[in-house]
Design a protein that fits this description.
- This protein has 294 residues and is an alpha/beta fold.
- The protein has 3 domains: 60 residues, Beta Barrel (OB fold (Dihydrolipoamide Acetyltransferase, E2P)); 151 residues, Rossmann fold (3-Layer(aba) Sandwich); 58 residues, Probable gtpase engc, domain 3 (Ribonucleotide Reductase Protein R1, domain 1), CATH 1.10.40.50.
- It is globular and about 65 Å long.
Length: 294
């Protein structure tokens, strides 16, 4: 019996790296019966059946897991938002942030295509970048120049397992190529009609960047909060979470309750109104979710 980590899932095979060797493995039927699927990032035990083939016998306990992208045991997430084409959206960025915060994954924000902006647009995006940096997030603003060298960003990835996620067309694959040009990951142009890119990444794979592992993942433009409860939503907003202990009521939801420290902070511009409005929008979305039955 051998052990390793799944670094790629493609066409029914799970590619498991064990020491310096990669084995193409199948999952056993017992996982399907238990409705458990191996994920990229999983630590597994597997039985070698041929020189470089085998089948997975056990999935080790996970620290965390994401559904979209399907990946497990992540330390941090680089959330990529473009400044333009597609336009920067604090609402979409906050959806990504809430999802990774709910999984206790450390977020980093990369804002791409800064060179495509007018001076007025650049000032607006830089103000957003300062807002998120003031909350406590690491924020990097990047250009869209082809072939640019991004190796100066390697320190973010050393000794970490990182997922790169964001709306399609924001430049996730281009970032990986800039970090390691030898990867030659496929990229595509932006659709001018739709304002978004084509999905050039069709599977999840962990690749080595510096001294860490990074996942290039299929692009997507929507996130649901099916695993997040109303009572924990505020914990996914660090700027709100930091003040909720000062509310009059212990279980204040920061919506209609009186003497709410969060709403006071919004009025004083200590919490940005768009952040609070996004919180309220997500709150209402979760509240209107259909009940789940086991």
């Amino acid at each position: 019996m051998a052990e390793g980590r799944i670094i790629k899932a493609l066409s029914g095979f799970y590619y498991v790296k064990s020491e310096d060797t990669i084995f193409a493995c199948k999952g056993r039927g017992v996982f399907r019966k238990r409705k458990v699927s191996p994920l990229v990032g999983d630590f597994v035990s597997f039985q070698v059946t041929d020189e470089l083939e085998g089948y997975i016998t056990e999935i080790k306990p996970r620290d965390n897991a994401l559904k979209r992208p399907p990946i497990a045991n992540i330390n941090q997430a680089v959330i990529v938002s473009s400044a333009k084409m597609p336009d920067f959206s604090p609402l979409l960025l906050d959806r990504f942030l809430v999802l990774v915060e709910s999984k206790q994954i450390d977020p980093i924000i990369f804002i791409t295509k800064m060179d495509l902006l007018t001076e007025e647009e650049q000032s607006t995006i830089e103000a957003f970048a300062r807002d998120y940096a003031d909350i406590g997030y690491d924020v990097e603003c990047l250009t869209s120049k082809a072939g640019r060298d991004l190796t100066y960003l390697e320190d973010y990835f050393n000794d970490k397992v990182t997922v790169i996620a964001g709306q399609s067309g924001v430049g996730k694959s281009s970032i990986l190529n800039g970090l390691d040009p030898s990867l030659l990951i496929e990229t595509d142009d932006i659709s001018m009609r739709l304002g978004r890119g084509k999905h050039t990444t069709r599977y999840v794979e962990l690749v080595e960047i510096g001294n860490g592992l990074v996942a290039d993942t299929p692009g997507f433009s929507a996130l649901d909060f099916s695993d997040i409860e109303l009572e924990t939503l505020a914990d996914c907003f660090p700027d709100i979470h930091a003040r909720q202990g000062d509310c009059r009521f212990r279980r204040c939801m920061h919506i209609q309750e009186p003497h709410c420290a969060v709403k006071d902070a919004v009025e004083q511009n200590k919490i940005k109104s768009y952040r609070y409005n996004n919180y309220v929008s997500f709150y209402n979305e979760i509240k209107s979710r259909k009940p789940r039955y086991s």
